[in-house]
Amino acid sequence: MRRYMLPCILLMTDILIMITACWLSVLIRFSINEAGYTFFMTAIMANLPFFITIHLIFFAVFNLYSRAWRYAGKRELLAIIAANACGILVSYFFIQVLPLPIFTGRGMSRGIFVTCFFIDTFFMAASRYFVQWASYRVDKEDRAGKRLRVLIVGAGDAGNIILRDILQRDNRKVVGFVDDDKAKWGQIMNGVKVYGGRQDIPILVKKLRIEEVIIAIPSLEAVAMADLAEICASSGAVVQILPEFFTSLDVKDINVRSLRPLSIEDLLNRDPVRMNMKEIGGYITGKTVLVTGAGGSIGSEICRQVLRMNPTKLILLGRGENSIYEIHRELSDTAPKGVLVPYIMNITNRKGMEQVYRQYHPQVVFHAAAHKHVPLMEAEPEEAVFNNVAGTLNTAELAGQYGVERFVLISTDKAVNPTSVMGATKRVTEKIGQALNKKYGNTKYMAVRFGNVLGSRGSVVPLFKKQLAKGGPLTVTHEEMKRYFMTIPEASQLVIEAGSMGEGGEVFVLDMGEPVKIMDLAKKMISLSGLVLGQDIEIKVTGLRPGEKLFEELMTAEEGTEKTSHKKIAKAILHDEDPDTLYRQIDTLRSLKDENAIIGQLKTMIPTYTPNHFKAE
Length: 617
Description:
alpha/beta, 20 helices, Rossmann fold
C-alpha cells in the first residue's frame, strides 16, 4: 500500500498545479478588470478536463509516477519538460487548430499556452525535487540515530582536525573529548565538551554510551601509548588510532581515513625502529636482487621493501608455489614490466640453485629461507640440518663463486645459547657466513639476529587470534616465558640496513627493548578483543615444548658488542671461523642419520648449545 502513496500524492499535486498554471497564465496575460480575462478564463476552464487528461496521458508515457524521485537528476528533469511540452502541443492542436464544436478556445492567445507550459514545468519539477530533499532529510535523521557515538582522546590539533572532518560526515557523532591537560577540562571545542583525562575513559564509555574511541595523539611516546591503548581497549569500545607517522605531516593530511584499528603492536612498551630506506637502499638500486624464502613473512616483506628501491631485477625464490604466486601477484600491481622473476626452487637443490646464479647473476642476496618451527625441528633434526645448514651452504657458496656483492643472512635470537636443534643450526649458518667471508674476498657476508616477529606465520600472535576466534582457551607454555618482539616491516628494514652497513663477517643485533611476557601478551590480546579474562575466555598453561627455553637472548656472555651508525643496531664481536675446520664439521654433520649423533655433533660445533631435547607427548 505504501508504494502507491507517493504516486497518488504526486498525481493530485500535478492536477492542482495544472489548474493553478491555467489560471496564472490568463492572469499574467490579462488583468482581472479586462474583458479578455473573463472570456479566456471561461474558455480555458471549459477545456480544462481535456487539458488535464492529455497531460496525464503524457505524464504516464514518460513514467513520471514510477520514477525514484529521491535519486532524481538531469534525466528526470528532461522527462518533466518533455511530458509537459507534448501535453501543451497536443492541447494547443485540438483546442486552437481543429474547428471542433466541443472546444471553445478558438482564438485563444498562444502566449497563454506558452506561459502555462513554463509554470507547469517549474512547479512540477519543484514538487519532485522537494520529494528528493525530504527523502534525504529523513535518511539523514535515520542515520543520525544510528551514527557511532565517538570519544576522541586528545583535544589538541590532531583531535580537533579529526572532529572537523567527522562533522562533515554522517557515520560518526563525536560525543566528547578526553585530554590529560587539566586546563582543557570543561572547555567546549566546536560544540564538544572535554570531559576529563585518560583515567575517566572507562567511566565515560559507559556513561555516554560510547561505541568508538579515537586516539588522536600521534606524538605520544611508546610506553605512554601502550598504557593509553590498554585503558581504551579495556573500555569495551572499538578503538581507532591516528598513526605515529602523522607527526611529520602537514595538518591538512590528517583526516578520518587516516585512522587505523588498534593493534597488538600498540600495546607493547617499545619504540619501533625508524630507518630512512631511501638513504640505505642505494646498494640495491639498479642491481639484480635474489630473495630466498620470498613467500614467507619476512621474505615477502623484504621483497616489498626492495622493490621500492628500484632494482633491475627481483628474483622471488621459494619452494612453495602458492606463496610465491601470491607475492608475485601482489607486487605485479606496482612493479615495472620485467623486474619480477618468480622462481620455484628448493635451496637444498645445488644444481637448481646454481642455474639461478648462472642465469641471473644476482648482485645482492637476502637469504630468508629456513625451517623455523622449534618443536617440529626437534622431531626432525636431520631435516633441520639438511635445509638450514646444507641449504644455506649451497646458497652462500654459490654467492661467492658467482661474485655476489653482498649476502645477507636472516638469523634469530634462538641461535644464541641455543637449546633447540633449530637454534643450533641457525648458529651454524652464522658461522658459514663468517667462514665464507674469508674464503671469498669479493663477497661481503653478514647476518642479522632478531627476535619474534609479530604477525609472522610462526608467531604466537596469529595463534592467539585463532584461539580467540574459537572462544579459547589461549595456550601459554609457561607463565614466566618472555620473548623479544618486533614488527615484520621493522625486521625487514633491519635486514636491508645491515646489508648497507656491513663490511663482511658481521652478525648484527637489534636493540629490541625489553622482552615481553607471553602471559601478559595473551592478556592484552584478550583485552584488545573486548573480552574479559576468566569470564569470557581462559588462558591455559600447557608446559614447555621440545627445544623451548624461557628467555631468549640476543648475544652470549662471551660476545661483546660494538656500536654501529644506527643507535638501535649493534654488532656482535665473534671469534673468527676457520673455513677448513668448519667444512669438515659440516661434512660430518651432514653424514649423520641418528638424531642423538646429530645433536652430539651440533654440541661440538656450538659449545653453548644446551639441548632441551625431548619428544612431545
